[in-house]
Design goal:
The chain is an alpha/beta fold. It is about 35% helix and about 25% strand. It folds into 2 domains: about 160 residues, P-loop containing nucleotide triphosphate hydrolases (Rossmann fold); about 70 residues, no CATH class.
Length: about 240
Amino acid sequence: MLLSVENLEVKYGNIQPLHGISFHVNEGEIVTLIGANGAGKTTSLHSICRLAPPEAPRVIAGDIKFRGESILKTSPSDVVKNLKMALVPEGRHIFGNLTVMENLELATYSREKGADLKQEYQRIFDLFPRLHERRQQRSESLSGGEQQMLAVGRALMTGCTFLLLDEPSMGLAPRLKYDLFRTLKRLNEEGMTILLIEQNASLALHLAHRGYVLDTGEIAAEGTSDELLGNPDVKKAYLGG
Ligand SMILES: Nc1ncnc2c1ncn2[C@@H]1O[C@H](COP(=O)(O)OP(=O)(O)OP(=O)(O)O)[C@@H](O)[C@H]1O
Ligand SMILES: [Mg+2]
């Protein structure tokens, strides 16, 4: 097991968004966490990435383990550098006044000095040819879909083997959603482990191997994607009947 979240309870001040949730991700899997607005999806991701407050909440009970060892004391930069986990945050958070290339370069801060990254840029431009065409363009002038590609590309430039994505399909036209999800599938086939947070449950479950349904800070259902797609409660609440 690569990542396990065990009976995790967290708080922001007096607000407790997670009430003892447990889930896990095996190496090479795509796992999705689906749920409505405010269910605690982003909170779960931020807890795993060990972001500093105020983004990340305080852990009051339970544990988060990477290959069986607690990472509650691991710094956010060590999560990227040593555990090779990279977050594609909600809303992308790219630097609009920098070019595409500069945004990608910034993400290499955690890499070894002098590492030859030419092939890695090539890999990203292979996955997203549009980024190559726009590489000298200021990022704020990219379309929403292109910005999302850049956010994924930037995470890949950290050299991650485990990608955590927070609602990557948000705001994208259907066609671009499918393109992005196809790219995620390809990355997974090349060995990338993926934890995908999504409100679009149908899209997420068609990509993922397994999933968990998060409902107001608790795991309400879990199973293989096929099991969840066939679960009457999940259908009714998240798949439009
Ligand atoms: N920094 C914060 N301080 C206080 N409360 C927070 C903070 N971040 C989130 N919350 C609260 O925690 C709960 C879970 O929020 P979270 O952002 O994890 O939900 P979500 O499932 O990602 O929702 P969405 O689909 O809208 O992104 C919400 O009630 C939210 O108001
Ligand atoms: Mg969220």
